[in-house]
Amino acid sequence: MPIVELDKICKTYQMRSFELPVLRDIDLSFGHGQYVAIMGPSGSGKSTLLNQLGCLDRPTSGRYKLGGEDVSQLDDNALSAIRGQRIGFVFQSYNLITQLNVIENIEVPMFYQGISEKQSRERARDLAVQVGLGDRLGHRPYELSGGQQQRVGIARAMANDPLVILADEPTGNLDSESGAAILSILDDLQNRGKTLIVVTHDEGIAGRADMIVQLLDGRIERIEQN
Question: Whole-model pTM?
Answer without folding.
Answer: 0.94
